[in-house]
Design brief:
The complex is a heterodimer of chains A (about 475) and B (about 90). With about 475 residues, chain A is of the alpha/beta class. Chain A folds into two domains: about 45-80 and about 330-465, Aspartate Aminotransferase, domain 1; about 85-330, Type I PLP-dependent aspartate aminotransferase-like (Major domain) (Aspartate Aminotransferase, domain 2, 3-Layer(aba) Sandwich), CATH 3.40.640. Helices cover about 40% and strands about 10% of the residues of chain A. The longest helix of chain A has 21 residues, at about 110-130. Chain A is globular, with a radius of gyration of 24 Å. Chain B has one domain (about 5-75). Classes of the chains: A alpha/beta (about 475), B mainly alpha (about 90). The interface of A and B includes residues 86 and 429 of A. The complex binds pyridoxal-5'-phosphate. Pyridoxal-5'-phosphate (PLP) binds near residues 143, 247, 250 and 270 of chain A. Pyridoxal-5'-phosphate (PLP) binds next to α6 of chain A.
Chain lengths: ~475, ~90
Amino acid sequence: MQSIKAFTSITSRGVLFQTQRRFIQTSTVVKAATATAATATADDLPLDIPSTSAAAAATNEAFKTNPLNGTRPIYLDMQATTPTDPRVLDKMLQFYTGLYGNPHSNTHSYGWETDKEIEKARKNIADLIGADPKEIIFTSGATESNNMAIKGVPRFYSKTKKHIITVKTEHKCILDSARHMQDEGFEVTYLKVGEDGLIDLNELEAAIRPDTALVSVMAVNNEIGVIQPVAEIGKICKRHKVFFHSDCAQAVGKIPINVNEMNIDLLSISSHKIYGPKGVGAIYVRRRPRVRLDPIITGGGQERGLRSGTLAPSLISGFGEAARIINEDMEYDQQHIKRLSKKLTDGLLALEHTQLNGSATARYPGCVNVSFAYVEGESLLMALKDIALSSGSACTSASLEPSYVLHALGADDALAHSSIRFGVGRFTTEEEIDYVIKAITERVEFLRELSPLWEMVKEGIDLNTIEWSGH
Amino acid sequence: MSTAPSTTQVLSLYREFLRNATKFNNYNFKNYFIRRSRDAFNSGKTLKTQEEITNAYTKAQQELEVLKRQSLISRLYSFEKLVVEPLNGSHKK
Ligand SMILES: Cc1ncc(COP(=O)(O)O)c(C=O)c1O
């Protein structure tokens, strides 16, 4: 037995990893990562401790980027947003240069020409998910679409239905809308997921009640890229005559989605995740059999009365063009993304004590979430100023809270803290992937050298035998 | 219906695509459009009927206009070079 207290006072550098002190065990990586986080607590530390930023500065010193090259980071945060495709911008510019009519003005040609472009966009978006253009309602983004579905459907049927089912790993805008519905007196079941991030279909079926108004399950998860069995969920919902909503913000255009084959009644889309402009999205609302919902925004009755307000022709038409391109090029884009993603995943997992988070098979390859044991994700991100990435937690805000999605998979704080999400997209190059693999490998090794726990691991000390003293 | 374009016409259109793709200031867009043009013209070799070839040619002509405008815009609004890009502008691609 060995006391960690002694260790910490010798190697004060251990402070780099000061987070929580907890000790849970599942896989080796979990153990290792937990041990990392357990190293130091404030009362153990000498006063002249190097801060996290000092360590990051040291890392920067050690890894100067090529001075003959530029300084702008490589963009690898495709789940947060994607670059606007130049072909999309080309479409949009018309509306800032000549086509300025209000699409709802039906008394003159300025209105008609803009309206015609909107309807073209609507068709392109409908085609992408196998829907009828009349079933597409434009919104300000997937957040609004999700709010409309989660709040609108149960409110409309509230006389007879009082129950909503969703999943713990959904995007914050689903979970927060569900919370609001709880305040309004609805009951919400939050399904758990397994270690692979997938829901249990039996558990879903068992959760359905006679008064269930809506089931909402996302297709592709934004943090770990796991794909839920949407078609099977659709079948279950149809059998029980419950409406099925799916947040497909990260799925549309990336994996094949068909609302009829998958029995989806409502579906959310976001333009800026498919190389379109930000600030626009859509919700698909099934017409046969008709799905009714209480609108959130009322007024002039545009968009079948479900979403009033003058439409934004430039954004919508850019969104439509983005949908057309990603639909036409899905196979081509995915081939490229799959190839680069495999190279990246293989390269990162070649490092010792790393693990891929979420199912290895039911996943969208463009989203790679990896845990690096004995390294804290935030420290690694700070040491990686030349690559634009997100740690599992930074998705919704700049909070340093560990990711609730990784928690739902059974990961503890330490593992969640040591995770980084890599997003590969249409415009990512092989050269960038090679750079990233090299940079991550060097810097993970560098940061691990600073960790006293890494020394112990290398010496073959079983971290489980250590008595964590001082608490 | 007009007759299908000649091989010379197709090759010249292909060169125009590459020329304009290379003119993008943005590293990612430049590399994408070079790759996309190459692959599109390569897969065009499998087109058989006159009609298929003519349609693809007409569509590509319209796409070339987009590429011309957008590569110009990319030069009008330029940003710092990426960490994988040489500052002197000569790029191995
Ligand atoms: C799964 C998922 N749903 C919803 C959203 C929100 O989309 P938007 O930015 O269009 O409101 C996002 C993006 O962050 C997402 O990843």
